[in-house]
Specification:
It is a single chain. The model is unreliable at 91-118 (pLDDT under 50). This protein has 486 residues and is an alpha/beta fold. Helix content is 39%, strand content 13%. The longest helix is centred in the last third of the chain and has 24 residues, at 375-398. The relative contact order is 0.12. The protein folds into three domains: 7-101, Orthogonal Bundle (Arc Repressor Mutant, subunit A); 136-376, Aspartate Aminotransferase, domain 2; 380-485, Aspartate Aminotransferase, domain 1, CATH 3.90.1150. Strand 4 (211-216), helix 9 and strand 5 form a beta-alpha-beta unit. The protein has helices at 23-36, 49-56, 60-72, 98-101, 137-145, 149-155, 165-179, 194-205, 220-228, 245-249, 274-287, 342-355, 361-372, 375-398, 427-440, 470-485; strands at residues 76-79, 83-86, 188-191, 211-216, 232-239, 242-243, 257-260, 290-294, 319-324, 336-339, 405-407, 415-420, 446-447, 460-464. Helix 7 packs across helix 13 (361-372) and helix 8 (194-205) runs parallel beside helix 9 (220-228). The strands form three sheets. It has an eight-stranded mixed sheet with strand order 3-10-9-8-7-4-5-6, with helices on both faces. The radius of gyration is 23 Å and the shape is globular. The chain has 16 helices and 14 strands.
Length: 486
């Protein structure tokens, strides 16, 4: 029988008012830390939301929101009529004393290393493009024009390779509050898009012939970056819970770097559960391997708040966190960022300076102002509502597709995956023909088989919906239906 956590045991729980974020966010972080350090033991029953709200002088909805976030991320479990309980899935190695977690880190030795289609890539159903027409361009233009002459002249010369200090501070504050990333501004490296971030990681962390693993299916931009620097790309399968850590452990040679998309696996959409996150971090620590966490569109979860990052759980600085503004603002901005372990900051800044120099300073300054004045958060809120409506529509329209077409369930992201299960046909050829017929009708799509490094296990289409109007979504799926039925 599970023990119940007495309210007396939680009286030491304090919400740090100096930290950024709402009371709900601070309560979530405080409870999460208490679970991870063992203060709240596995299987124990938590106080009711009403009792905890009364103890901490909070609104009950604040406590319910924190509990829901912890539940979504696997820290607690709810049983109808029984209450909320600390999850049993946390492995014993993770529940360490606070003193163990805060031991000074040993310096890490880093090996030196040597320095789409032609059609409209922004059209309806194109993958990876946000709703460009809904971007607040008037606000952006105003901010761009409001930089005073003295400030503008300062931005016209050379800038620091690591990025504009205001933007680095803004990024650090944002990922700490929204993604539970553990970082300071000095760990932020601004890049010219996500692809430069991938290139830097492969160039500096991998020597020629080093093994590097990635999800299969997965993002082919990372595959190209690995191959471009002479590394051996190793396919690691994914299932309904993301990357298969058991398969990773079974590889004949330990990868030096593993690339993952844990919050919304690209392209299949699975979410890496807490148990696998902790297992993966333990593996990385034991093997002295790097984990590159690509958080490419984590802002767009529609049934709950964005999930906390893997990096925020990392106690040994094995995780590099990567994000960009391509989907939250617009891809033409070409702004990305890395949150680096402190031991890597100087090396990455020097390499970026030697390879490309600074990212355009004026662009960084406008983006920093856009975030600092609150426009970024307001824009994200509006887009979450809009994209949620578009996702619901496209899934509803896809319900009328033939029975041999399986639409994968989705509650996050800016695209959907439809899988072909037609018996007695060459599925890859079928996929290619449907893809080409859609292109002839002016509808863009991506072939699911092309996301695989090795032999494709699934075939189908990946359809972006963010930059399509409601009318385009309905018309496009109707066109697809006619092609499939023919």
């Amino acid at each position: 029988m599970a023990s119940t956590i007495n309210l007396v045991e939680l009286r030491g729980l304090r919400l740090d008012d100096q930290k950024a974020g709402t009371r709900r966010q601070r309560l979530y972080l405080a409870l999460r830390q208490s679970i991870l350090d063992g203060s709240l033991t596995s299987g124990s029953q938590l106080p009711s939301s009403r009792d905890l709200a009364s103890q901490l002088s909070l609104g009950r909805n604040t406590v319910i929101g924190a509990y829901e976030q912890l539940k979504a991320e696997g820290y607690i479990q709810s049983h109808a009529g029984a209450g909320s309980f600390v999850a049993n899935a946390l492995p014993e190695f993770w529940q360490q004393a606070e003193t163990e977690l805060n031991k000074p880190l040993e310096p890490r030795k880093i090996d030196p290393s040597p320095g789409t289609e032609a059609s409209n890539r922004n059209g309806s159903f194109c993958v990876g493009v946000p709703d460009l027409k809904s971007f607040p361009i008037k606000i952006w233009n105003r901010l761009s024009q409001q930089i005073p002459p003295a400030g503008l002249s300062n931005l016209m010369g050379f800038g620091p390779a690591e990025g504009n200090s205001e933007l680095r501070n803004a990024v650090a504050a944002y990922v700490r509050a929204s993604r539970s990333v553990n970082c300071s501004a000095k760990q932020v490296l601004i890049t010219s898009g996500a692809q430069q971030a991938l290139d830097l990681c492969c160039r500096l962390l991998l020597n020629k012939q080093d093994h590097a693993a990635m999800e299969d299916p997965g993002y082919q931009g990372m595959h190209r970056a690995m191959l471009g620097h002479g590394a051996k790309a190793i396919a690691c399968p994914v299932d309904q819970d993301g990357i298969d850590v058991a398969s990773l452990k079974a590889l004949p040679k330990t990868p030096k770097l593993v690339y993952i998309t844990p919050a919304n696996q690209y392209p299949l959409g699975s979410v890496l559960p807490l148990s696998r996150k902790l297992e993966l971090l333990e593996w990385a620590e034991q093997n002295n391997s790097w984990i590159l966490e690509d958080d490419y569109d984590s802002e767009y979860h529609y049934q709950h708040r964005p999930l906390a990052s893997l990096q925020g759980l990392d106690k040994t600085q094995n995780v590099i966190y990567m994000g960009s503004f391509s989907k939250t603002l617009f891809p033409g901005l070409r702004l990305g960022y890395l949150i680096l372990p402190e031991v890597l900051v100087q090396k990455f800044s020097l390499a970026k300076n030697q390879a490309s120099g600074e990212t355009p300073s004026h662009t960084q300054a406008v983006t920093a102002a856009f975030i600092n004045e609150g426009h970024f958060h307001r824009h994200l809120r509006r887009m979450r509502v809009l994209y949620s409506e578009k996702l619901a529509l496209i899934l509803d329209e896809c319900a009328s597709l033939p029975s041999w077409v399986d639409t994968q369930p989705r509650a996050a992201g800016l695209h959907i995956v439809i899988q072909f299960n037609k018996p007695n046909v060459d599925s890859v050829t079928l996929e290619k023909n449907i893809h080409q017929r859609l292109a002839s009708a002016g509808i863009l799509s991506s072939r699911l088989s092309e996301y695989y490094l090795e032999q494709p296990i699934k075939t189908g289409l990946v359809l972006g919906f963010a930059n399509s109007s409601m009318e385009q979504i309905s018309a496009g799926i109707l066109c697809l239906k006619k092609i499939l039925e023919n």
